[in-house]
Amino acid sequence: MPKLFPRRFPASLNFSPDVLKRLKPQEGLPFIADKGYDAVDIIESLLDRGFEPAIRIKETMRMSIRHPLRKLSNENWKRYGKMRYRVEQLFGSIKQKIGSSFKLLREDLARKASIACAILWNFWVLATYLFLLFLSGIL
Predict the structure, then answer these.
(1) Helix (H) / strand (E) containing 31
(2) What pLDDT score was predicted for residue 127?
(3) Which residue blocks in 8-67 are alpha helix, DSSP H?
(4) pTM to 2 decimals?
(5) By the 8 A CB rule, do 93 and 102 touch?
């Protein structure tokens, strides 16, 4: 009996399955990603964890999407894909204001530094908002 889908669509990046195991199961939450995560094994592990995979699938005029999991992921991408760009714009703004990287090797220190930067970003947005209110005469 021939296999319907002989290729497993291996990931084009070195993505460790251990990273997905660290994610807490989330029912119905979309996992939005780009074409680098286009692999059936990644989509399967996301579904096992309860996520809705919304991964942009590699598709050309000659090669259509045949695997049902990849079709599901592409349909979700059409529904949730716009949110990815909002998140990227937010992080791009944060990188412009604070800097693009942290030179920290320990994971706990990197987490603390990123939380501190997020708090500083919120203070900057609040100060800008209050300043604009002050200029408009509301405050």
Answers:
(1) strand 30-33
(2) 85
(3) 17-21, 40-48
(4) 0.56
(5) no
Looking at residue 112, its pLDDT comes to: 86
Q: Specify the DSSP element, H or E, that contains 54.
A: strand 52-55
| Per-residue pLDDT tens digits for 118-135 | 888 888 888 888 878 877
Mind listing the pLDDT tens digit for each residue in 60-97? 777 888 889 999 998 999 888 888 877 778 777 777 77
The letter for the amino acid at 38 is D
What is the identity of the amino acid at 84? R
DSSP 24: P
Find tokens 């990197």 and name the residue: 110
Q: What is the mean pLDDT of the chain?
A: 78
Distinct helix (H) and strand (E) counts, the chain: 4, 2
Closest-CA residue to 81 (of 52, 55, 42)? 55
Is 53 exposed, middle or buried (CB count within 10 Å of its CB: 0-12, 13-18, 19+)?
buried
- Enter the tokens of residue 61: 């005029």
Q: Could you tell me the two tokens for 44?
A: 């399967």
Residue 120 contacts by C-beta under 8 Å, 6 or more apart in sequence? 98
Residue 60 in tokens: 């050309």
Six-digit token string for 18: 């251990």
More confident residue, 102 or 58: 58
